[in-house]
Amino acid sequence: MSATPAATHTPGTASQSRLLNYALVSGHGLVNHAIRSALPSLIPLIPNYTEAQQALLLSAFFPGYILTQLPGGAATQRWGGKLVSTVNLWSNAVLFLLTPLAARHAGPVGVAAVFAALGLSQGSYVPSSSVMIKAWLPAGPWRPWALRAMELGQRIGPLVAAWGVPVMTSRWGWASVPRLYGGLSLLFTLVWQMGASDGPSAASGAATMSKPKADPVEWAVFRLAPVQACIWSHFASNNTIAVMSAWSPTYFVNHLRCTPTQAGALLAIPPLVQNVGNVAVALLENGLVAREVP
Questions:
Q1: Rounded to an integer, what distance in angstroms lies between the CA atom of residue 12 and that of residue 207?
Q2: Nearest CA to 150 among 271, 270, 27, 273?
């Protein structure tokens, strides 16, 4: 009787592995965006902080987030998307769990330091998740749906934060938010570490354990007009979203005199509309791909 090969993979197993990694990549986005979106909603709810101290906290996240985008891309290129994403997830969970401790022992400055470290941690999210999404995207008519599935967590994260933070704070106090979000992120990180793969070949056992091959960076591409146009368009869009999402909760609570729950309901409108729009765009894209439109 011949021995069964060690690396036998049925089509069903491959399909299950692909769906698992879709869910894990989406969960990676959910963790990052839920924590990032929770910060602005949480800041005006921390008692006894002045507007100047709230402004310090609101601005603490973004410098580190900007500074680690390119290093995060270089790290992803050198070590692969899963390893960089794993470091991102561990640091997200641990740092957010430390927020109440920092507030108790170091006040607003301590919380600002934790938020700045979160920004440094999350800067690697965009390059690492983009590499993993690209690796897992299938060819053919299912490609738009797969993309939306893997990006779903990014869209749900702000929605979860907008509705969840005010409710949790009113019932259990503001410290319950980092404890619950950080604890759940920690559990997800364990699942991610055991189940995620850099790509389908790695999941099927065909990939070796060698480091990913690093391609040289073609810096000259940044001189091309279409690339510059994409960069400025991305900057304008993301900058507007960042300013609105960061300052809206404080503005609603401090100046429009909304209750935290009312502010949360208002903040939930943009991501809710965005989720509906993504489904509509996916339907359109799927139709275009099916008709073989270039």
A1: 19
A2: 27
- Label residue 213 by pLDDT band (50, 70, 90): low
What distance in Å separates the CA atoms of residue 57 and residue 49, rounded to the nearest whole number?
10
HSE, CB side, 13 Å, CA atoms: give it for residue 225.
0
Contacts of 256 (CB under 8 A, 6+ apart): none
pLDDT of residue 145: 82
Q: What torsion, rounded to 10 degrees, do the Cα atoms 103, 108, 109, 110 define?
A: 10
Structure tokens at 155: 């869209």
pTM over 0.90, yes/no: no
Query: At which residue do the structure tokens 């993301």 appear?
Result: 238
Contact between 136 and 203 under an 8 Å Cβ cutoff? The reply is no
Q: What tens digit of pLDDT does each residue of 124-163 get? A: 999 999 999 999 998 877 888 888 889 899 989 998 999 8
Q: Over the stretch 71-130, which tens digit does the pLDDT of each residue have?
A: 999 999 889 999 999 999 999 999 999 999 999 999 999 999 999 999 999 999 999 999
Which residues contact residue 156 at a Cβ distance below 8 angstroms, ignoring those fewer than 6 apart? 30, 33, 34, 271, 275
Q: How far apart are CA 190 and CA 8, in angstroms?
A: 26
Task: Classify residue 186 by burial, with Cβ atoms within 10 Å: 0-12, 13-18, 19+.
Answer: middle
Distance CA 70, CA 223 (A): 17
